[in-house]
Design goal:
Number of strands of chain B: 2
Radius of gyration of chain A: 22 Å
Number of helices of chain B: 13
Largest sheet of chain A: none
Order of helices and strands of chain B: HHHEEHHHHHHHHHH
Shape of chain A: elongated
Structural class of chain A: mainly alpha
Number of helices of chain A: 13
Distance between the termini of chain B: 11 Å
Oligomer: heterodimer
Strand content of chain A: under 5%
Helix content of chain B: over 70%
Largest sheet of chain B: 2 strands, antiparallel
Mean pLDDT of chain A: 83
Largest interface: A-B, 47 and 54 residues
């Protein structure tokens, strides 16, 4: 942890992430407005003292919507990456531990999944289901576990023949026990890095989907659909498009900086 | 080399079957069958068109037979007809009852997307090789810091947001560039040079937007590759025998550092094709991405399935070409030493 804080870039990343997380968690305290309250007397106001990010076409306070949008965007990010990490660990661990045919079979499956353009895959699944926040999380999770699987497999392959694994095996530990108690904790570093970087890309994918109208559905605010609402008014209400974009940019930047910082910390060989 | 090639091509067969299985599986994700209203199928659709869909995918037969029949059609490259656009064939042109040729939807859309992606890839390469090399040569100095910072920014900027801002700034405010479509209204009346300039103007913003994330990733890749090569013994040797620094960098190092880029091209194809959905829908460019997006919105299942399958085939094919070029470019692989 000390090393992370000493690295200026990852410290910046951590500060960005924590500030946005706090704003999202304490949204009702930070802003007393209701994110979905329509007010015909305050339509498309530019940023001012009462509405620091202005109001939208329905008179809703954009700052408040951004705060609640942060909750949704981050929730989608964390849950979907959680799903993909768990799937990736399961496949990667099985492939790396059992090697041989099992490994070949799983890795070919990974190759096949990787050769389907992921955004097409996500959209195709959504075409056959209805877009909802839970479906989005599951779809992003199920279509982005391949990187984690490759990573965990590589770690497991190199750990497999280490002494402590052989020792555990010869003292009669079950395979499940060895995988969970001995090998997984030793490959946690790269998994954490890929989790942090994964959140960044999941936030981007979710905002892209919501922007296309296939993600989180109105009136629930997410950064992507605030931006979609805003694009109609871009000529006379720039604040509707500027702030959600900046929020996405900052969030992704934060997670990427932290992820890269962590990678350097866990991997002493890399400069 | 020949054996490598044969092996590599043989690999495509199980991959293709795998892709078809996954595509088929996705179609069956829908609750009930894809014609039911729970599956978000257009509730206004007539019983007749539902029946047609059931027949098309043989939904009344057991699932294994459905897959077999579907695969048989795919092998013959028969993707059926669109529901939404007046029975246009999904893949390739066909003659209708009156003998008129009806162009296929993918046939029309694919060249546009390929053109944009090829231009994008070329630009990404040129600029990222330049940026990556500069960053590596000035490691930890100001140019390197600047480039690394821009790389992080490039990763983080949502492409569609940048596109929106550029449309607002260059298209609406300054009115320098057109903001949608591929051609101007007076395109037919332009001279051939005029047509070319018109096309470039229309492609400028979409290409710029799609370059962005790829640019960041590949610059970083070139930088790290260059740093690795610059530490190698043969570079020290070259420097020690007095080869000038420019030649060391641009001749000895760069050649080795950019070789792995060929593989990266292969790997970046699915991302580029997938990314075209957002760029093409924003700029209203009638390519594969826009076609796919519209098909998803209209639940035009034959088109969705067709593009999903063709998009994956293209990726596989792109990877094949990348692997073959790598083998041809690297003498160690070419002569079977590796």
């Amino acid at each position: 942890m000390n090393k992370v804080i000493k690295n200026p870039l990852s410290l910046i990343g951590l500060v960005i992430i924590l500030s946005i997380l706090c704003l999202a968690i304490f949204a009702p305290i930070v802003s007393s407005n209701d994110p979905n309250e329509i007010n015909v007397h305050s339509i498309l106001l530019s940023p001012n003292f009462d509405h620091i990010m202005g109001t939208d076409a329905l008179g809703r306070d954009v700052f408040t919507r951004m705060l609640y949008g942060a909750r949704i965007s981050l929730l989608v990010g964390f849950v979907s990456v959680g799903i993909s990490t768990i799937i990736g660990i399961i496949f990667g661990a099985i492939a790396g531990f059992y090697r041989g045919l099992t490994d070949a079979f799983i890795m070919r499956f990974v190759d096949i999944m990787l050769s389907i353009p992921s955004f097409f895959l996500i959209l195709a699944v959504i075409a056959f289901l209805t877009p909802s926040i839970w479906n989005i999380m599951i779809v992003i999770g199920v279509t982005s576990w391949m990187g984690v699987a490759r990573l965990v497999r590589a770690e497991f392959l190199s750990l497999r023949s280490r002494d402590f694994v052989l020792a555990a095996q010869s003292s009669g530990a079950t395979n499940f026990h060895i995988i969970i108690k001995h090998m997984l904790p030793n490959s946690l570093g790269p998994i954490i890095v890929s989790f942090v970087l994964g959140v960044a890309s999941a936030v981007l994918v979710e905002s892209g989907l919501s922007f296309l109208g296939l993600g989180v559905q109105a009136p629930t605010a997410s950064w992507g659909n605030i931006l979609t609402d805003g694009k109609e008014y871009i000529q006379f209400a720039w604040w509707l498009s500027l702030f959600p974009g900046l929020a996405i940019l900052l969030t992704v930047l934060g997670y990427n900086l932290l992820g890269e910082g962590l990678r350097d910390t866990f991997d002493p060989n890399k400069t | 080399m020949l054996i490598y090639l044969l092996k590599r091509i043989m690999w495509m067969v199980p991959m293709l079957i795998g892709i078809s299985l996954i595509s088929f599986f996705i179609m069956h994700l829908a609750p009930g069958d894809i014609t039911s209203n729970e599956a978000a199928f257009n509730p206004k659709a007539s019983e007749e068109s539902r029946q047609k869909l059931r027949e098309l995918y043989n939904l009344d037969k057991p699932i294994a037979i459905q897959y077999g029949l579907w695969l048989k059609r795919i092998i013959k490259l028969d993707f059926g007809e669109s529901f939404a656009s007046h029975h246009r064939p999904v893949l390739w042109e066909k003659k209708d009852q009156n003998g008129n040729v009806v162009p296929g939807m993918i046939q029309k859309a694919l060249p546009i997307t390929l053109l944009i992606n090829v231009i994008t890839l070329l630009i990404i390469f040129l600029i990222s090789i330049l940026l990556g090399t500069t960053a590596a040569v000035f490691k930890n100095k100001i140019p390197d810091r600047l480039i690394t910072f821009s790389v992080f920014l490039g990763f983080a900027i949502p492409g569609f947001w940048l596109a929106l801002m550029l449309i607002y700034w260059l298209g609406v405010n300054e009115q320098i560039l057109p903001i949608s479509g591929l051609h101007s209204l007076d395109y037919e009346n332009l001279s051939s040079i005029g047509k070319f300039i018109d096309l470039i103007k229309h492609l400028f913003l979409p290409v710029l937007t799609s370059c962005l994330s790829g640019l960041a990733g590949i610059s970083l890749f070139v930088r790290n590759g260059m740093l690795e090569v610059l530490n190698k013994d043969f570079i020290n040797t070259a420097r020690a025998k007095g080869v000038n620094e420019k030649k060391v960098i641009y001749y000895h190092s760069l050649r080795n550092a950019i070789l792995p880029l060929i593989t990266i091209v292969g790997l970046s194809i699915p991302g580029l094709i997938g990314g075209s959905v957002i760029a093409e829908s924003i700029f209203a460019i009638p390519g594969m991405g826009k076609l796919f997006y519209d098909a998803v919105l209209m639940r035009d299942f034959p088109v969705v399935m067709g593009i999903l399958t063709i998009g994956s085939f293209l990726t596989l094919f792109g990877n094949l070409i990348a692997d073959i070029s790598y083998a041809l470019a690297d003498p160690r692989v070419r002569k079977g030493l590796m």
